User: What shape does this take?
Amino acid sequence: MNNNKNRLSIAVALGLLGSVASSNTMAAGFQLAEYSATGLGRAYAGEAAIADGADAQWRNVAMLTYLEGTQVSVGGIYVNPNIDINGSVDGSKSLNPTFKKTQASSNDFANAAFIPNLYVSHRVNQQLAIGFAVGTNYGMETDLGSDFNASHFGNEASVITKEINVNLAYQINQQFSIGGGVRYVIGEGSFGATTPTQNLFGQPQGTTLKYMEGTDKAWGWQVGTAWQINETNRIGLSYKSEVKLDLTGHAEGFGFNKIPGDTREYYQKGSMALGLPATAELASYHQLTDKFAMHASFNWTDWSSFEKLEAQFNDGTSSMVKEENWEDNYRLAIGGTYQLDQKLTLRSGIAYDTSAVSDKNRTITIPETDRLWLSIGAGYDWSKNLSLDAGFTYIVAKDAPITESRGYESDDAAQAVGGEFTGETTGNVWLVGVQANYRF
Assistant: This one.
């Protein structure tokens, strides 16, 4: 009887288990930095202070006042992550001490993706400019597979967002510009976990323990300002608000059952709150010579607001997904632009991204770690109105340890099902993008 109660408490406390995963490919957490191929070539250094084309509004709305006429920018970036998890599960640390130690590894489990974008800007008069943008600030998709022996801690997760911006900017005088915009975000997410080879419930490997998926739409906002210190030096500052999604859908998996020993299929409608954090960027641009400019950015993301995931069900009950306890993330980027001739522009940059989790809070489904960006790019003026840009980036992800359980109640419950995981995450990412800009 006590054993059945233990199994029941474990099943309920496991929550969805599949905490938000990061492909560890781009910015911290499940944030995306890849808004244009133009900026990619300089590691997104100085973005809030540079106005190459209509895409400039994505990082600082005030930069619309630096664009003449009507401009359109369209492009995309292909992201190819190569992220591995290697470790083992100590089954003896489950509620069944007879379980053996097994290997738990998953290679190249973060899915590749193509990230498209579209931007339009229009200068209404000398002071006023408007803009329209379609892109994304957040997204990821990982799948460690149902044969992953630590799948009781989570084996799949995805967050996919699409965003539409309508922006307005005003040039106060020769030195200062301000801007603001509204953001409409469409989001969807899924999180899940399955039974490993050895599990307390005696179920076949890959049986769904907990799975939940949902969708939502929400509003956000952004503001920005630019200070033209003199003809050759500029500073930009921008801020994007938090966007709160309430992913509404359903949950399934026998782990939600409330009757001891009940392994029948479970289905229940519900929702899960997921906040897309606020961000800020301080950037500078310096035209050192007629041909050469340097630029830099300091970025902040309010990941410390991401403390936990908790599912709310339509029958009035709730289930803790996972304690997260993330911390704020910072990014520093420095880049250069060289005008080789009247048609060809060369770009390069380097950036360092800090992890949004400490060593303690790193998880299998969030193999978050520090990243080093190395970028090159070029722009070519095909004609007076048309320019083409390309960028390439190689990201080196720092090797980092992972241990689950981390000592939280939801982790301890998962460990009781199949054992403790210890291992390491390793990986790298490469990105390539193209962009076309047309001026009317």
